[in-house]
Amino acid sequence: MKLAIASDHAGFPLKRDLIPWLAEEMDLTIEDMGTSSSDSVDYPDFAGDLCRHLLEGKAERGILICNSGIGMSMSANRYPGIRAALCLFPGMAFYARHHNNANVLILGGGIIAPFLAREITTVFLREEFDGGRHSRRTGKIESLSQTDFR
Prior knowledge:
The protein is an alpha/beta fold and about 150 residues long. It has one domain: Sugar-phosphate isomerase, RpiB/LacA/LacB (Ribose 5-phosphate Isomerase B, Chain: A). The protein is built from six helices and five strands. The protein has helices at about 10-25, 45-55, 70-75, 90-100, 115-125, 135-145; strands at about 1-5, 30, 60-65, 85, 105-110. It has a five-stranded parallel sheet, with helices on both faces. The protein starts with a strand and ends in a 6-residue tail after the last helix.
């Protein structure tokens, strides 16, 4: 599986911790889409780059990391076709995949420890979408991006 990963400055330490583990232990092809330091950056820029990358078919799934995960989640979910899930526990990652077909995992680098991030990520990468009635629901989510609410 090809996986894209990006973070802002607050998520950089966790991203730096996860990348070797993802490549070596999980045997994934990793594309690091930035940032490359703890110098302040704007998280929507990195969320946008990663989401466009996924939508262009250049990676199968993605991981975004900021301090709380909230900003990355809000940014990523603005892109039609992206189903980003902020997961704080492995059980959340399980349902994000099985019921919501999430294609982007959001992690809060300032609120979860690396060992927990690895557990969450393992579930997110190994689990599959159930389809069935959940396909109808994810279809309804996608139709929201085509609705004019004005």
